[in-house]
Amino acid sequence: MSSNPCSERSTALLCWYGGHARDLPWRHTTDPYRIWVSEIMLQQTQVATVLPRYGAWFERFPDIDALSVADLDEVLKAWEGLGYYRRARFMHAAAQQIVAQHSGCFPATLEAITALPGIGRSTAGAIASFCFGASTPVLDGNVKRVLSRWHALPAATDKRLWPLAQDAIDASGDPATWNQAMMELGATLCQPKPDCEACPLLKHCASAFKVERAREKKGATPVRDVHWQVRLHTCPEKGIWLTRRPDHGIWAELWSPPISELHAAPDSPADHIHLLTHRRIHLYTEIPDGEPTGDGQWVANMDHVSMPTGIHRLLDKQGVKA
Length: 322
What we know:
Nucleoside Triphosphate Pyrophosphohydrolase; 2 domains; four-stranded mixed sheet; 42% helix; 11% strand
């Protein structure tokens, strides 16, 4: 009788995960609020960056109710340094929706979870499986890489990969652990440069030991240089003059000194260059004479004011404490 390759693959991966999984705090809970926070924080952010911020988040917002009634500035301040601040705004809105529509209890169905702001199918699948035992796959970047290599489909679309992810989790018999194991494999051994020799799925992978050619994604957005002048007003008694950024675009709704875009790069080098996904921001400091004008306010205590990392670093270089 021939063996079942899906069963063998499931057993091999789950056994490997049992002996090699990293000890991460969100793997010791099935509380959907804590799982949700971890999943959102880990989107496009390294584990090492998330770890010190994860516990601090719950000290400030111990439950969904606390998050829902917090001021948005407080939420953005707690998110400071994690980047992609839209995630924090979505979490704040989702918490308010959970309180209004679900009496403060995190919803348990995939449909209700995906109806929350900022939660897509993959994140909802993770929450539903980890917290409620649902057979709902994850399809984040790590899992996509693993599945496409297993099946020798380097150019596979999400539409092609979702059924493969569903088949795999259905065959696993343990949805929660399976999703964790798939993400762990992609994050450790099956990285862009894979360690095939150490992989527990070596004999089940159609791409083992085959070097993939680096392919530039079609339609990828190039990094564009922008040049911003930062008008820096400081006062020993009053602090620093800050304005709130617009509610859309780069650094939306965060606080910073007044910024104006320059149409051409100055002759002098930038005081700080901050790299975003699609922008390289060159920051030039101007120390104006006189009092500031326009919308803004003096801020002497930055404990409750959220400021972009790029501005923090610029101020550090200028010797301004913020």
